[in-house]
């Protein structure tokens, strides 16, 4: 151990002392796969689609059988339930890993 990060083989970060001498474990489980895209789609739906529907609502609320008051109460519940379900799903999945 010379104190030089490049010589110690740790060129991308600072020095980390590991008493056992084992190398840092790679984060192989931290990939952005379809589960990440589910989260991105949920956030996009919650922050782009539903507010857009609320803005366009006066013309379309009656076509879904909702009054304007009903639509303003029901539409924000969709992303709330969806984000809650994705949060629970992701928490349960991360506990099992």
How would you concisely characterize the structure shown here?
The protein has 97 residues and is mainly α. The protein has helices at 5-8, 34-55, 57-60, 68-74, 77-96.
Distance between the termini: 34 Å
* Main sheet makeup: none
Order of helices and strands: HHHHH
The portion of residues assigned to helices is: 55-70%
Radius of gyration computed on alpha carbons = 24 Å
Let me know the average pLDDT.
76
Gross morphology is rod-shaped
How many E-type strands? Answer: 0
Taken as a percent bin, the fraction of beta residues is under 5%
Q: What class, by secondary structure content? A: mainly alpha
Secondary structure tally, helices:
5
Q: Runs with pLDDT <50, length 5+?
A: none
Report on the structure:
This protein has helices at 5-8, 34-55, 57-60, 68-74, 77-96. The longest helix has 22 residues, at 34-55. It has a domain at 31-96. The mean pLDDT is 76. Helix content is 59%, strand content 0%. The protein is mostly helical and 97 residues long. The radius of gyration is 24 Å and the shape is rod-shaped. It starts with a helix and ends with a helix.
Looking at this protein, list some descriptive labels:
97 residues, mainly alpha, 5 helices
Secondary-structure map with pairings?
Layout lengths: L4 H4 L25 H22 L1 H4 L7 H7 L2 H20 L1
Helix pairs in contact: 2-5
């Amino acid at each position: 151990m010379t104190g030089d990060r490049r010589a110690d083989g740790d060129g991308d970060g600072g020095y980390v002392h590991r008493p056992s001498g084992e190398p840092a474990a790679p984060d192989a489980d931290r990939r952005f796969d379809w589960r990440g895209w589910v989260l991105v789609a949920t956030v996009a739906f919650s922050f782009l689609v539903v507010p857009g529907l609320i803005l366009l609502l006066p013309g379309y609320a009656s076509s879904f059988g909702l009054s304007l008051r009903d639509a303003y109460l029901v539409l924000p519940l969709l992303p709330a339930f969806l984000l809650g379900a994705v949060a629970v799903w992701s928490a349960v999945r991360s506990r099992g890993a």
